[in-house]
């Protein structure tokens, strides 16, 4: 009798584990996207395209720009990279409000985020830009604790800019980041 209960218990535990793993699935993130080849590319949010390893090809010199179309919490991403001699020489990722002012300069926002997340845009935005210049590959950039969502967006958007640089496509990539309600 005890053996039968033990076998039943182990079977239930195994079944529960399988069910939980199957239900876990992939989490979706509204910030990442993939671009189309239209003259002004538009993307639909989907982070499943963010890979742990991103294989880069040869980059063509030029300036490559990406912009979110809509404001989220009062800000939208604008991101430009410059490629010279096949290397990323400038990374200008930022979040700007309707007046074009950077989140880095929003003292109240930075103070509140620092209290909660132990980091703020004035810290992590320059850190992300510097990391891309040093690593050259978004997959090699470490996630910044307290700014996971922003790091993931940065990596996905950097990947899209690099893909444009591989093709030499200097058209602005527009991200439709409309949050559905």
From TrEMBL:
<dbReference type="GO" id="GO:0016020">
    <property type="term" value="C:membrane"/>
</dbReference>
<feature type="compositionally biased region" description="Low complexity">
    <location>
        <begin position="32"/>
        <end position="50"/>
    </location>
</feature>
<keyword id="KW-0732">Signal</keyword>
<dbReference type="Pfam" id="PF04205">
    <property type="entry name" value="FMN_bind"/>
</dbReference>
<feature type="region of interest" description="Disordered">
    <location>
        <begin position="26"/>
        <end position="50"/>
    </location>
</feature>
<feature type="domain" description="FMN-binding">
    <location>
        <begin position="74"/>
        <end position="165"/>
    </location>
</feature>
<feature type="signal peptide">
    <location>
        <begin position="1"/>
        <end position="21"/>
    </location>
</feature>
<dbReference type="InterPro" id="IPR007329">
    <property type="entry name" value="FMN-bd"/>
</dbReference>
<dbReference type="GO" id="GO:0010181">
    <property type="term" value="F:FMN binding"/>
</dbReference>
<protein>
    <recommendedName>
        <fullName>FMN-binding domain-containing protein</fullName>
    </recommendedName>
</protein>
């Amino acid at each position: 009798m005890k053996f039968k209960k033990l076998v039943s218990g182990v079977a239930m535990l195994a079944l529960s584990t399988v069910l939980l793993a199957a239900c876990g699935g992939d989490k979706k993130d509204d910030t990442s996207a993939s671009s189309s080849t239209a003259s002004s590319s538009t993307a639909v949010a989907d982070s499943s395209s963010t890979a742990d390893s991103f294989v880069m090809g040869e980059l063509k010199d030029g300036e490559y720009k990406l912009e979110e179309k809509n404001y989220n919490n009062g800000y939208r991403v604008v991101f430009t990279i410059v490629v010279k001699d096949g290397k990323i020489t400038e990374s200008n990722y930022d979040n700007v409000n309707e007046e074009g002012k950077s989140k880095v300069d929003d003292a109240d926002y930075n103070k509140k985020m620092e209290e909660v997340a132990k980091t703020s845009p004035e810290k992590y935005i320059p850190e992300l830009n510097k990391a891309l210049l040093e690593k050259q590959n978004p997959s090699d950039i470490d996630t910044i604790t307290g700014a996971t969502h922003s790091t993931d967006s940065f990596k996905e958007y950097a990947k899209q800019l690099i893909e444009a640089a591989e093709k030499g496509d200097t058209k602005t990539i527009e991200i439709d980041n409309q949050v559905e309600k």
